[in-house]
Design goal:
single chain, about 220 residues, alpha/beta, eight-stranded mixed sheet, three-stranded mixed sheet
Length: about 220
């Protein structure tokens, strides 16, 4: 059984981290069900274990937190759906690559509910959309923008952290970092793509597609 939790107001990052830590410990101990926690954060940057100092372009813009997850710098803020995914890989298969692939599958299936073709890219974790509506890159290839980020951590084979999908965040806030260390591509959102999607719409799609990526 997966417990779906919804935070009605933005959650401070230290509070979210503490609550995730507690839930993961309880799942590992067998005293709590797996959980997906849907929330937003106030504007902030998080630094993963591979974050490079040079990628924090404007360190004074928003608070910066060490996340402990894999990956580099990421922005979180209002208008972005964060889904912290606390699942027991002891029973779902102890395969980190497969788990990350399942998270990507979940995001891609969710975006497909809005007719947005999300795609993987080799060497770039996360989910991307091709932008034929924008000028191509310097080498003539179509522009690609990131719409969802993925960063995970495991403890006793229970996962935490998870995914973030841009619904309608202030995209200018990403300018304070090099998102995920990738300088050659931009960032987009569902609303930026011209889709009048609400957070409630996205939450419904996340719930509807979850079992396809994480069956039983």
């Amino acid at each position: 059984m997966v417990d779906w939790i919804h935070a009605p107001a933005p959650v401070a990052y230290p509070e979210a981290l503490a609550r995730m830590e507690a839930r993961v410990a309880a799942i590992a101990a067998g005293t709590a069900d797996e959980a997906v926690w849907l929330l937003e954060h106030p504007p902030l940057y998080t630094a993963g274990t591979s974050a490079q100092v040079a990628d924090l372009v404007d360190p004074g813009r928003f608070p910066v937190f060490a996340a402990g997850r894999g990956g580099q710098y990421t922005y979180h803020g209002p208008g972005q759906r964060v889904a912290y995914t606390m699942l027991d890989l002891n029973r779902r298969g102890r395969d980190v690559r497969r788990f990350v692939c399942a998270l990507e599958d979940w995001v891609i299936a969710t975006l497909a509910e809005f007719n947005v073709p999300g795609e993987r890219r080799a060497g770039r974790v996360g989910v991307w959309v091709v932008r034929p509506d924008l000028p191509p890159g310097p080498d003539g290839t179509p522009r690609e923008d990131k719409i969802a980020a993925i960063g995970v951590k495991l403890r006793r084979w229970v996962s935490f952290h998870g995914i973030s999908i841009n619904v309608e965040p202030d995209l200018s806030h990403f300018a304070g970092i090099v998102p995920c260390g990738i300088r050659d591509h931009g960032v987009t959102s569902l609303v930026d793509l011209g889709l009048p999607v609400t957070m409630a719409d996205l939450d419904a799609a996340l719930l509807a597609t979850f079992d396809r990526a994480f069956p039983g």
